[in-house]
Amino acid sequence: MAAKRHPIFDTATTLGKLMLFLGVSAVCGVMVAGLMVPAVALAGNTANASINFFEQLPDDMNVGVPAQSSKILASDGSLLATFYDQNRTEVALDAISPFMKNAIVAIEDARYYEHGGIDTKGLLRAVVSMVQGGGRQGASTITQQYVNNVIIQTLEAAGQGDQAKIGYDKTAGDKVREIKLAIAMEKKYSKDEILQGYLNWVFFANNNYGIEAASTYYFGVHAKDLTLPQAALLAGVVNRPSYYDPVTNPDNALSRRNMVLGNMLEQKMIDQAQHDEAVAAPVGLKVTPSVNGCTTAVRGEYFCQYVSNLIANDPAYGKTREAREKLLNQGGLTITTTLDPGLQDAAQSTFEGFTPVANNPDKVGQALVTVQPATGKILAMAQNTKLNAPEGQWSSAYNFAVDSVDKQGNSLGGSGGFDVGSTIKPFTFAEWLNSGHKINEVVNGAVRRYPTSHKWTNTCGTTSGSYDSSDPVNADPDLQNAEGDYYRSLTAREGLYNSLNTATIASADKLDMCNIQKMMTAAGIHEGSDPNKPYDLSNVSSLLGSGEVSPLTMATAFATFASGGVHCNPVALVSIANAKGEQLPVPGPDCQQSIKPEVAAGVVSVLQDVLARGSGYQVPLKFPAGAKTGTTNISEQTWTTGFTKGLVTSSWVGSPEGKSRSNNGLLIAGQRIGYVDGATYAGKAWQQYMNAVAGNFDTGSFPQPPASIVNPPAPPPAAPKDKDGKATAPPSPPAAEKKKD
C-alpha cells in the first residue's frame, strides 16, 4: 500500500486560488458560482466570506462497507446461489490488474497522484470551457467521484435512492460539499486506499458494481486477470455506463476503449506496440450473466429457498424481516450449508425415471429429502418442479419437503405436508415397546369392529373414532387391511412389517394415546401446518396416517430410530460469515437421547423386516437398511421413508395441488396403472437413489435389540388333569421346601 499523500493545498489555500481566479473575470466568477458555490456564499464582497463558508462545511463521511452480494454455498464450498441488490464483490487493490488501475487513472484523472482531492487545473479548464460556451463540465477527480458514488449508493442501499442527486440535479452547494469531502478524504486515506475504494464502488452498467463484478460479467475472468484491452474497455464504461455499455452499444464502447488506450500511451503507461496490439483487438466479450436469488440457483433451488427463509425469519440476523432481508441482499454474507452436491444431483436426476420435470402432464408431485442421523444435517432436498420454470415445465412456489411455517409462524415456503399413511405406524410400535410390550408379543389382528362406544385411553386429551359397519347411524366401515388374509392373531412384529391396520389398532387399544403422541413428539413428529402442534390423535384414524406431515419431518423422525434414539433437529446452516469475515450464529441440531436405545433398536429390527419380507419387499437395498411404506386410502399420497446407518431419506409421490386426488391411473414412469402404493413409485425412487449414494456413508449393521424386549415370557405350564379332563391341584412340595410361617 502506497504511503499516505497529503493534499498539495489545504482547504483555505485551494479555495483562495479559486477565488483569485474568480477575480480575473466577473463572467468567470458567475460561472464558477453556478458550478461550485451557493449564491449566498458569493454575496459578500471578499473571498473571505466564501472561504469561511467553505471551512464551516462538514468534512466527515463514513465510507463504511459497500453493499455486497451474498453467496449460499454447498457443504463443499461450491456456489448454490447469489443474492444482491447491487452486484458487487469487494477485492483488494493487489487483486486488480495493473492495466485496470492505470486505465482508470488515464481516462478519469490523469493528475490523480499529483492533486489533493480536487484538480485545480481541471476545474479552471472547466470554468473556461463554460465561459467559452462549451457547456457544463464535471471537473471531477477520482476522489470526488468516489465521494459521489459513496453518497449515492449508500442512499440506494438504505432505500432512499430518490434522495440521490446526479448530474444537473445537484445544486452548487452539493458540489462544494463534495469538494470539501474529497479534500478531507485525501487527508484521511492514501491514494491507493482511495483508488481501491473507487474501483470497488463504481458502477459498470448491467447492475454490476465494482471491478470484480464487471470483470466476471463482461469477460468471465477475475479483476486480477484483465488484459490491457479488457481493462481499457471497462475503464471507458464508467463515464456514461449506458452509452458505453459494450453489450448494447459495442461501437461506442470500442471507440471509448481506444480513447483510453490513447491516453495510456500519451501518459507513458504503455508503449506503442502495446497500444497498437490492443487497439487492433476485438471487443471480445464473454458475457456471463449474473444470477440473483434462488430461481437461478446452480442446484437445490428449493433448498436455497428454505435457507433464505431461515435467515429472513431469524431475529439473530436483524430486528425486523426487512433488516434481515437487507443483510442477505447487501451484507456480503458467505453462507455455508449442509447440502451435499453429489446427493442433491442424484436425487434430482432420480425424477427423470418417474415424474420428469419437462414431461409430467398430470402434474404428479415427487420429492426426496435426505438427512444424516445423529447430526440433523440436510444433505439433499429435491423435487420435480421449478420455482420459475420455462414454458412446458411445472412451476411451483411451494417446497414439497418442508413445513408451511416455522415455530414463530413465519413462512418457510412449504406445502405443509401430506397425509403420511402407514409410515406413521412405527411410532405406535415404538410406544408398544416403550410401555413394556414385546416385539413378538401376540396381538389380535382379527378385530375389525370398534363401535362408537369404545373407549380409547388418552390421559392428556380425548380420542374418538370408530370402525363399525353395523352402526346404522355412523355407518363407519369395518377396519380393513390392504391384504385380505391377515385377519388373525399374530405378533406385533408381523403386524408392523406387513403394515396391518388391525394389528396397529389392536396394539394401540392396549396403550395410552397420550404416550403414543409423546413418542411421536420425541422423534420430532408434528403437524406440517404448525410445528408447535403435536401430531393430532383426537381421532384414532390418525394412527393409520390421516395426519399431514412434511417429508423433512418424516426423515428426521426416522433418523431418530436409525441413530439409536438420538433425535436431532434438522439443520441446513453450517456457518455464516459477514463481509468482514466475522462469524454470525447459526442454530444447532440440539441432539438429545429422546427414545431409549433398546426401543430404537427394536423398531429398526422390524423395519429391516419390511424390506426383507414385508410391505417393502420389492425395494430392498444392497446395504443393511430399514424402511416403512405408506399409502393413503385411495392412493392420494404414497411414501417410502427408510434408512441405512449413515443416511435417512423420505420419498414422496402424490398430488400437491389437489391433495385428495388419487395417483391411480396417472402417468408415472411412462405408464398408467390401476393401483399405486407406497412401494410402487415412491419406494422404487427411494431404492434407486439410496443404492446410488448410501455407499458413500456408513452402511454398517444395526445393533440387535436386547432379548428382554423381543419375546414375551413363556406361559406357565398347564395344570395336570384327571381322567375326566378336570384340572387337579399341583402336588405339594416336599416338607423341607415348605415355607415357614
UniProtKB/TrEMBL annotation:
Q: Which residues form a coiled coil?
A: none
Which EC number applies? 2.4.-.-
Residue span, Penicillin-binding protein transpeptidase domain: 368-642
Q: Which GO terms describe its molecular function?
A: glycosyltransferase activity
Q: Which domain of life is it from?
A: Bacteria
User: Which SUPFAM superfamilies does this UniProt record tie to the protein?
Assistant: beta-lactamase/transpeptidase-like (SSF56601), Lysozyme-like (SSF53955)
Give the region (Disordered) as residue ranges: 701-741
For this UniProt record, the keywords arranged alphabetically read as follows: Carboxypeptidase, Glycosyltransferase, Hydrolase, Multifunctional enzyme, Protease, Transferase
Q: Which reaction does it catalyse?
A: Preferential cleavage: (Ac)2-L-Lys-D-Ala-|-D-Ala. Also transpeptidation of peptidyl-alanyl moieties that are N-acyl substituents of D-alanine; [GlcNAc-(1->4)-Mur2Ac(oyl-L-Ala-gamma-D-Glu-L-Lys-D-Ala-D-Ala)](n)-di-trans,octa-cis-undecaprenyl diphosphate + beta-D-GlcNAc-(1->4)-Mur2Ac(oyl-L-Ala-gamma-D-Glu-L-Lys-D-Ala-D-Ala)-di-trans,octa-cis-undecaprenyl diphosphate = [GlcNAc-(1->4)-Mur2Ac(oyl-L-Ala-gamma-D-Glu-L-Lys-D-Ala-D-Ala)](n+1)-di-trans,octa-cis-undecaprenyl diphosphate + di-trans,octa-cis-undecaprenyl diphosphate + H(+)
Quote the Pfam families the UniProt record gives. Answer: Transgly, Transpeptidase
The reply on keyword Transferase is yes
Domain (Glycosyl transferase family): residue spans on this chain: 77-264
Q: What is this protein called?
A: Transglycosylase domain-containing protein
